[in-house]
Amino acid sequence: MKDKIRLGIIGCGGIARNRHITGLTLLKRAGIDNFEVTACCDVVDDNVQAVAAHARDQQGANPQIYHDWEELVCKAPVDAVDICLPHGLHHLVGISCLEAGLHVLIEKPYTVSMKTGRALAEAADRAGRILATAVPHRRMPGQRAVHWALNNAKLIGEVRTFFQNYTQWRPQVAPAQLSPAMKWRYDRIMGGGAGVIDSGFHFLDTIRYFYGEPEQVYAEVRAYRDGEAPVVRDGIATERENTVMSIFTFKSGVVGTWCWSFAVAGKETRDCVISGSEGSIEDTNYSNRYVVYHQFMGGGELRRRDGTYLSMEELQAKHRQAIGPEGVQRLFPNGVTDHFAIEIWDFLDAIQNNRKPEVDGWDGLATLALVEAMYESSWSGRAIKVADVLSGEAPSHWQQAIDAYWDAHQPPHLTRG
Ligand SMILES: NC(=O)c1ccc[n+]([C@@H]2O[C@H](COP(=O)([O-])OP(=O)(O)OC[C@H]3O[C@@H](n4cnc5c(N)ncnc54)[C@H](O)[C@@H]3O)[C@@H](O)[C@H]2O)c1
C-alpha cells in the first residue's frame, strides 16, 4: 500500500455528500492526512460530480469518476472503498470488493438479511481484508460518556431498565408522492423494512454498546393507515411500519422497552430514561423526534439517589477527566468530535495498523440479528432468542423473500486489472 490509503466512494447520495465527505474534510483539517479520495461512483452523474468536486476542494487533486461500480472495482486506483449505497446493495457490492482485495466500510444497516450479512462477514475473513460497519452514534461524546458512566464508573449502580418511548402524529406519505430518490427505501428487497432496520439500526447498535449482548426480544411491529385495517403480523412484510412496541432482555440482566409510534394523535409521549440501583440517566433531547433512534445527541441529566446531579456537559467533562489525554485522543483523534469523521478514521486506522475496527462485519451482523429478531417476533407472535437468529435456528418468515431474491442475484466475481 502507498503511504496514503487510496479511498473510493461508491454511492454519492445524501449520506456520502452530506456526512462522509464532510467527515473526511474534518479529518484533513485536524491534520489526519493518511488518505486520499481517488475515485467515486454513482449512477447519477450530478451526485458523483458533487462528491468529486468536494474531494477536489479538500485535497487539491481530482478523483476518478465512475458511473458503474464494477468498473471502479476493476480499474480504479483504490485500496479501500466506502460503500454508501441503498441497503440491499451493501452485501452485493461489499463481497465483490472484498474478493477483489479491497478493504470495505459499509454504511448501516449492514445488510438486509442474516444470510447476506453472514456471507459478507465471511468474505472479509476469507480475503483477510478490513470490513467495518459505519455506525456513527456510539462515537459521539454523549454516548461515549454514557457508556463510561454505565459500564466503567457505574454512576447509576447496577443498570436495571431502560425506557425509550415516543409517540407523535405525522402525516403518512403515499407511495405516489415519493421522490424517485426515496423509492428504494419503500422496496422490501432494497430497504429490508422501515424504521426498525433503517434508523432503528442506530438504536439497536447503541443498546448493544451500552448493555452488552441481548438475550431475547418480543416485538409488535405495525403499520397503521388512516381508513384502513392496521397491518400486523405477516402483513407487515409488504408495508412500512410506523408503530413498534418491543421489550428486550439482556444477558447482563437489563430489561428495556423501545416503543414508538408516528401514527397516533393527541397527547405526545416522550420518555427516554436508563435506570439503575443508584440513579438514572435521561436523554432530554426530546425536541428532536429522532431521539427515539439516536440517543444522547443533545442534553441529558444524571440523577442519583444520594442527591448528585450532573448535566450532560458535566458528565462529559467527568468522562474526559477520567480517561485522560490518551483516552481522549483514542476516542476523539486530534480533537475531532464529528461522529462520521471518527467512524471513517477508525476504518482507516484499522487498515493502517491491521487491527479490528471498533464495529466490524460480525458486530454489524450481531446488531442485524436484533432487527431480524424484532421482525420475526412480530410475525410469529412470540419472543425470539437472538442467539437463534444468529445461528440460523430461528424461523425466517420475514427474510425468506429477501433471501430468495439475493440468492438469484449473486455478487459478481471481479478481478482488478
Ligand atoms: N449513518 C447514518 O446516519 C445514515 C443516514 C442516512 C443514510 N445512511 C445509509 O447510507 C446508505 C445510503 O443512503 P442515502 O440516504 O445516501 O441514500 P440516497 O438514495 O440518497 O443515496 C444512494 C445513492 O446510491 C446511488 N446508487 C444506487 N444504486 C447504485 C448503483 N447500482 N451503482 C452506483 N450508485 C448507485 C444513487 O444514485 C444515490 O446517489 C443507506 O444504506 C442508508 O441507510 C446512513
Q: What would your notes on this structure say?
A:
This protein has 417 residues and is an alpha/beta fold. It contains 13 helices and 15 strands. The protein has helices at 14-29, 45-59, 69-75, 90-99, 114-127, 141-151, 188-191, 200-211, 312-331, 339-352, 361-380, 386-391, 397-408; strands spanning 5-10, 35-41, 64-66, 80-83, 103-107, 131-134, 159-167, 214-222, 243-250, 255-261, 269-276, 279-283, 300-304, 309-311, 384-385. The strands form two sheets. It has a nine-stranded mixed sheet. The longest helix has 20 residues, at 312-331. It is globular, with a radius of gyration of 21 Å. The model has no long low-confidence stretch (mean pLDDT 95). Residues 11-16, 41-44, 47, 69, 84-87, 89, 107-109, 134, 136, 181, 198 line the site of nicotinamide-adenine-dinucleotide.
